[in-house]
Specification:
2 domains, Quinone Oxidoreductase, Chain A, domain 1, 11 helices, 351 residues, Rossmann fold, 26% strand, binds zinc ion, six-stranded parallel beta sheet, alpha/beta
Length: 351
């Protein structure tokens, strides 16, 4: 099989000819149909996260060993299965849940594998979908997408799931309350696509790019704020009778957006930090106490949430976010485009 591998952080990916593995036990080998290019691939490729104040967190110190095949948003066709696999046959198309844990810790035992302390996530800690084949350790991680196109479905494994799980951390919200979505990139668009299925709250979308905000207005009945043109905190206050937002999801989560998110929270507000753009948040301790605020992170989501999300997308026939499909050869170029913010919606590669 041919895999496009990360062999050195910050260097172009390398094609490697590897022996096609044979699945054993509960393993399932899939032929990759489509794989999303995610913003977190960019960080893995670069080898670090910006922590603010010129500090960095290095991926190599987090247990990522090279060479490694990136790609954690994968839809594939079952090629062959191990002898213990039940309920799935070669030729079937499945979405891969990549956030696989150790299987034995308290999080893994209670369907919160994405919270595992020793994860082996596909495309992050073990080989993923920038390849013509991917090995999945157990059939339980395969989700039926019955009817959805692979290029539209693949990004639900990370972008969609991350957005969905972040939204779930803000509900219930009532009709007269405001939810702010910061960032109208791939994740923000996924959130906009599904938010109406979870709450009737008023939704405000903030971004710095008018093109992305225009796309947001096509997706749903959202008001938009371009934070390059106006102070987003003042704009949110003006739109909420000076009350502020009951919840803010920050899909950018850099020093600037996180400070805005904090400052636009209403009493009892919830701030969900999702983006990995880097930076630091400085906030007032007494304000947090007096306003009874919740500030929390949100990393991907559970297997059950992925199944819920796919059911919603299928049953409600939700429109896909814009998807641009490329050959896997273009991965390096696409990562650069992701870095430059040049992708509207999602870039997907096919081997
Ligand atoms: Zn991702
Ligand atoms: Zn675990």
């Amino acid at each position: 099989m041919k895999s496009l591998q990360l062999t050195e952080f910050g260097k172009p990916l390398q094609w490697k000819e590897l022996e096609k593995p044979v699945p054993k036990g509960n393993q399932v080998l899939l032929k990759v149909d489509a794989c999303g290019v995610c913003h977190s691939d960019l960080h893995i490729w670069e080898g670090y996260y910006e922590l603010g104040d010129d500090e960095r967190m290095y991926i190599a110190e987090r247990g990522v060993n090279l060479p490694m095949t990136m790609g954690h948003e994968v839809v594939g066709t079952v090629e062959s299965t191990g002898s213990d696999v039940k309920g799935i046959e070669p030729g079937e198309t499945r979405l891969v849940y990549p956030w696989i844990g150790c299987g034995t810790c308290k999080y893994c035992r209670t369907d919160r594998m994405q919270m595992c302390l020793t994860p082996s996530s596909l495309g992050v800690f073990s080989d993923g979908g920038y390849s013509d084949y991917i090995m999945v350790p157990h059939e339980q991680y395969l989700v039926d997408i019955n009817g959805l196109k692979p290029e539209n479905a693949c990004s639900y494994a990370c972008a969609g799931l991350t957005a969905y799980s972040a939204l779930k951390k803000t509900i219930p919200l009532e009709e007269d309350e405001t939810l702010v979505i910061i960032g109208a990139g791939g994740l923000g668009m996924m959130a906009m696509q599904v938010v109406g299925e979870l709450t009737r709250a008023n939704v405000i979308v903030i971004d710095v790019d008018d093109k992305k905000l225009a796309t947001a207005e096509e997706i749903g009945d959202f008001s938009t704020i371009n934070s390059m043109n106006e102070d987003p905190v003042k704009a949110v206050m003006a739109q909420t009778n000076e009350q502020g937002a009951a919840a803010v999801i920050d899909f950018v989560n850099n020093t600037t957006t996180a400070a805005s998110a904090f400052n636009m929270l209403r009493k009892n507000g919830v701030m969900v930090m999702v983006g990995l753009f880097g930076g630091k948040l400085t906030f007032s301790n007494p304000v947090t106490t007096l306003k009874n605020l919740t500030i929390r992170g949100s990393y991907t989501g559970s297997l059950a949430e992925l199944r819920e999300l796919i059911d919603i997308v299928r049953d409600k026939k939700l429109k896909s976010i814009p998807v641009q499909t490329y050959s896997l050869d273009k991965a390096d170029e696409l990562l650069q485009k992701v870095k430059d913010g040049d992708i509207v919606g999602r870039a997907v590669v096919k081997p």
